[in-house]
Structures are given as structure tokens and as C-alpha cells.
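USER: For my understanding, would you kindly supply a protein sequence with its C-alpha cells?

ASSISTANT:
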Amino acid sequence: MVGVKNNRRTKYTTDLIKKSFLSLLETRNLLQVTVTEICKQADINRGTFYLHYKDPYDLYEVLQKEVNQEILETLHKDQSPCTADGSLIKLLNIIQEKKQIYRIMISKRGENNFLTEVLLEVYKDYLHRRGDDPDQKDPSEMDYSYTFMVHGSMGVINQWLESNGQESPHDIAQIISSFKPEQM
């Protein structure tokens, strides 16, 4: 065995556990999902589950980190100057490509603060690329602006996913941008 973390069988097993977990989260709240149900759905034993995760919350946290990392890596690949709208469109395209996992992670069945870190990064990145220095602004005002932008964006994205994402990422980015304050 080359290593538990890097061999194909381990990857297959962890992917199967994640897929089974997400399937359960489509109909249940995170608090209601048990290790036994995940194992039954994945057709594995509990020992196999515990080899990789402590409990469903640990698995959920791992999924959140993986998804956040994927988003941040994608957003940081393009270092050209862009607008907040451009970053939002990139983010919304990523979300649209993997609607199922995002719908679960962002919806009321998951923990609604899932994208907070990513959205905060998008807005800070936008200010940085625009040449604004957040340290030069009133910290209290910046905190309120970020809170408004992040939670307002989360609400719009959540509604978009709950309504099956019929609008384009560009349309949703325009809606979000229309609500944010002009000057931060």
C-alpha cells in the first residue's frame, strides 16, 4: 500500500462516503444524519467511516473546506484586474456547475454561513485590485459593509439555488451588485 491518504481505493471510499452523505443531506438536516445512515447508504462498515472522519460534522467541515478551496483557487488563478461583478460571475459559474453540492451546503439543511469566507475574499480581492486599501477606511464602517455584502449575497445565492438556478450567473451577479453600497 502506497499510503492510506493517496491510494485509489481510499479516494474511491472517501468519494463514496461524501456522495452518500450529500444524498442524505438532500432530504435531511445535518443534525439528523447519523454515521450509521451514511455507512448504510455507502455500503461500508462504521470502522471504515471512522478511519476517515470523526463524525458527520467532521465530514461536513471537510466538504466545506474542499469546496471553499476549489473556489478560492479558481478565483485566484486569474490575477488580471477585474470588477466585483467579474469575480461574482466566476463564483456563480462554479456554483452553477455543481448545483447539488452547493444547494445542500448553502441551504437551510446545511449551515448557512458556508460561503461567508469565500464572499469576503471576493470583496476584499476586488478592493485590493481596485487599489483601495481597506486599512485606510473606518474599520467599523468596513465591517458593516462586508457584513451587508456577504450576507445579502448569500441570501440572493440561496434563493437562486432554491429556485433551481434558472437565471444566468451574470444576471445574479447584476442583482447582487445592484444592492451593494457604491462607496465602502
